[in-house]
Amino acid sequence: MRPVTLKEIAKELGISVATVSKALKGYQDVSPKTRKRVLELTEKLNYSPNTAAISLRKQHTKTIGVIIPTIVHYFFSSVIEAIIKIADSKDYLVILLQSDENFELEKKQVNLLLSKGIDGLIISLSNHTRTYTHLKKLQDYNVPFVQIDKISKIVHSSKVIIDDRKAAYNAVSYLIEKGYKKIAHFRAGLNPQNSIDRYLGYKKALEDNDIPLDPSLVYICDNNRDFEDGIFNAEKMIKEHGNSVDAIFTVNDMLAIGAIHYFRNNDIKIPEEIAVFGFSNWFMSSVISPKLSTVNQDGSIMGEAAINVLFEEIENKRAGKPALNKTVVIDTDLVIREST
What is the pTM of this model? Predict the structure, then answer.
């Protein structure tokens, strides 16, 4: 069935197209009687505005894209929830895509969103993103974008991050203050910036406390299966070092939970024989036994900041101003529980 137009509604009511448009938008210079007639007829005819035409006229689509590595993740689900809530309050539609830590898919998704004419993009890079031509393409098309959590420092855009290095430093320093000396680190791959910074924070905390860095205590966990990686590397660590390791600092909570699962199944007591410290403060960290000490990284606050910065960038673009390229750093804190 062909959609009804404003022109046809105006003809039916014997008024101008401009009056119909004003009535639908609630303009005060349209009488209540006329507005009532317009609303009754548009409802009867199932009229809906031509958003594509409106977007072309206004040069925006009221649509933003969000690309994240994984949706099934407590931190990212909190980020998404905050983004959608604020976007909806401003009548923006969110197109949500998951890269599944796949660089090629991430590039395709950026191109897809560009073809949809999005007004802006929020993106958390995959663990395997090593080149940034797809982000350069966003800049070439003058599409505002904000990087969040997993970012590239060499790409100039607005960013919403935490101080990963400081947060890791504080966590490892806490373990050292508690008397732990031989501390292993389960990190992600060599590429993600947050993995790099958390490793550097771990390393600096050891150095500042005169504990030599032992490379054999640093385990790479980059199979994108964090729980299984936690189990696998905990077993590998025990085989390589026996019971000499007295603490583990992990790059995220699921690695820590996998390690705890292995230790419990092998009668290794936590924290008496080994302490475990995670990162992110996912829901599971507070319900596992023993409850996991972790760095609190608030996804809701990061999501709110990201969408608000993106709206600032969009408004800047409409005003003909250059990109802000601002960096917002969200505070973290340590949550101390039974595992330490």
Answer: 0.81
